[in-house]
Inverse folding.
C-alpha cells in the first residue's frame, strides 16, 4: 500500500517552511489543516498533523533520573483540572515517577516500585526509563484504561525535554502550567489567541488576567518542537494506518520513529 498522506516528505516540508517563515506556531498555520478522506483509484486517503508540544509531557516528571518537583506539581494540577482529587493525583504522580526514575525507592504517597509490581497480576517490573507511548500508562499502578483515555487529549510522552507551546496548549493544560490561572481564565486566553496568537512569552504574560500570575518561563514557548503525523489509506479491502513522530529541533524535522498500525 502507498503510505498515507501527511506522513512523509510533504509533511516535513510544511513544517520546515513554517519554521523559516515565522517565529511562532499556532492554529492559524497551514500545518493544522487536515487532509479529509480523498478518493483515489480503488480507495481513499486521509491524514493530519498534531502538535505534541501543546500537551503535557509525562516524561518531564523525572529529570536526570530523579523527580522534577515543578513538573510534578503541574501534573497534579492537570489531574485536578480533570476532576481527580488531590489525594489521588498525588498517588498517580508518585507511581508515574517510580515507573520512570532510576531507583527502587518508593515515592510517597502510594508510589510503586519493583516489590509492588512483582506481586501484581500479571507480574511485571517498572521500566526505570522514559515512557515510549502514552498507552504504557496502563501498566502503571492506578492508571485504568478509562483514566488513560480521559488523559489522552492532554498528555504526551516525548523522547527529550521541550517547552510547552502556549499557542496550542488546551485550556486545561494552561490552567495547570500557570498556578492560579484557573480553567475560566485559561479558556478566555485560548479563545482570544485564535484571532491573535501569542507572539512571544512576554505577550503571553501580558495577557494573563492578573498581574500576580507568574508562570515559569523555562517551561513555556510560542513554538513547537514535536509533531505527530498520522495517515490512513484504503485500497480495495486493505487498510493501513501510519504514525510518524517528528522532531523539529532544527528547521528540517527529523523522524524519531514511525509505526504502521
Amino acid at each position: 500500500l502507498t503510505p498515507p498522506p501527511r506522513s512523509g516528505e510533504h509533511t516535513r516540508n510544511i513544517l520546515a517552511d513554517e519554521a523559516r517563515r515565522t517565529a511562532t506556531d499556532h492554529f492559524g498555520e497551514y500545518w493544522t489543516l487536515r487532509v479529509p478522506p480523498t478518493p483515489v483509484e480503488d480507495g481513499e486517503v486521509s491524514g493530519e498533523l498534531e502538535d505534541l508540544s501543546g500537551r503535557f509531557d509525562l516524561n518531564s516528571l523525572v529529570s536526570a533520573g530523579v523527580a522534577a518537583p515543578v513538573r510534578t506539581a503541574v501534573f497534579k494540577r492537570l489531574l485536578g483540572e480533570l476532576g481527580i482529587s488531590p489525594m489521588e493525583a498525588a498517588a498517580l504522580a508518585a507511581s508515574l515517577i517510580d515507573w520512570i526514575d532510576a531507583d527502587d525507592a518508593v515515592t510517597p504517597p502510594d508510589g510503586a516500585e519493583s516489590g509492588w509490581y512483582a506481586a501484581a497480576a500479571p507480574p511485571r517490573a517498572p521500566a526505570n526509563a522514559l515512557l515510549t507511548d502514552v498507552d504504557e500508562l496502563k501498566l502503571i499502578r492506578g492508571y485504568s484504561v478509562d483514566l488513560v483515555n480521559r488523559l489522552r487529549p492532554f498528555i504526551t510522552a516525548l523522547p527529550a525535554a521541550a517547552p510547552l507551546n502556549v499557542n496550542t496548549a488546551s485550556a486545561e493544560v494552561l490552567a495547570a502550567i500557570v498556578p492560579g490561572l484557573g480553567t475560566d481564565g485559561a479558556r478566555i486566553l485560548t479563545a482570544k489567541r485564535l484571532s491573535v496568537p501569542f507572539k512571544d512569552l512576554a505577550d503571553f504574560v501580558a495577557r494573563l488576567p492578573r498581574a500576580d500570575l507568574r508562570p515559569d518561563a523555562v517551561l513555556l514557548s510560542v513554538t513547537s518542537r514535536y509533531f505527530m503525523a498520522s495517515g490512513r489509506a484504503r485500497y480495495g479491502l486493505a487498510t493501513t494506518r501510519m504514525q510518524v513522530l517528528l522532531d523539529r529541533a532544527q528547521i528540517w524535522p527529523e523522524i524519531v520513529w514511525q509505526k504502521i498500525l
About this structure: Residues 82 and 106 are 25 Å apart (CA to CA).
